[in-house]
Amino acid sequence: MNQPIHKQLREIRRDQHRLQKHVAAALGVNHATYGSWERGQASPFLHHTDIWATELHHQLVATVDGAVIDTLVNFVAALPVLRRGRGLTQEGLGRRTRRGVTAVHGVERQVQAGGGLLLSTVEWYVAGLDYGIGLAPAVLERAA
């Protein structure tokens, strides 16, 4: 789980022998846009990344010391609470991540509003709290 998410997803797609254009079509995005995500030249919104992982039969997860602690979507909803739980102010996290208090405040405003966050934004915020982001095989629900 040390590689960036876009590289992990690219490797999974290749292991599944799927073409970029087919995954892009399944996600409803332009092939060029998808290619820029895989190369790390552009960052998708978190909800696109979640759909991307699901399309490849994986899920985005939050980790601590390599252990999965929650789905990333659930984890992101609690970012401001987790920051405070780590004893960090917005200013402290801004210094730690070298992004500044305005960036931290903006992320937390977006979390509260349920707005779209870029994967790259979530990555630096989560790393600043000493958590990680990874992929885990999707858990299939069984019919009752």
Structural topology:
Elements: H1 5-15, H2 20-27, H3 31-39, H4 46-55, E1 58-64, E2 67-71, H5 72-77, H6 79-85, H7 90-97, H8 101-113, H9 119-128, E3 132-137
Antiparallel strand pairs: 1-2, 1-3
Helix pairs in contact: 2-3, 7-8
How would you sum up this structure in a few lines?
The chain is of the alpha+beta class and 144 residues long.
What does this protein look like?
By secondary structure, the chain is an alpha+beta fold. The chain has one domain (5-137). Helix content is 57%, strand content 12%. The chain is built from 9 helices and 3 strands; from the N terminus they run ααααββαααααβ. A 3-stranded antiparallel β-sheet has the order 2-1-3. A hairpin with a 2-residue loop joins β1 and β2. The longest helix has 13 residues, at 101-113. 24% of the residues are buried. The model has no long low-confidence stretch (mean pLDDT 93).
Pick out its properties.
12% strand, 3 strands, 9 helices, 144 residues, alpha+beta, globular, three-stranded antiparallel β-sheet
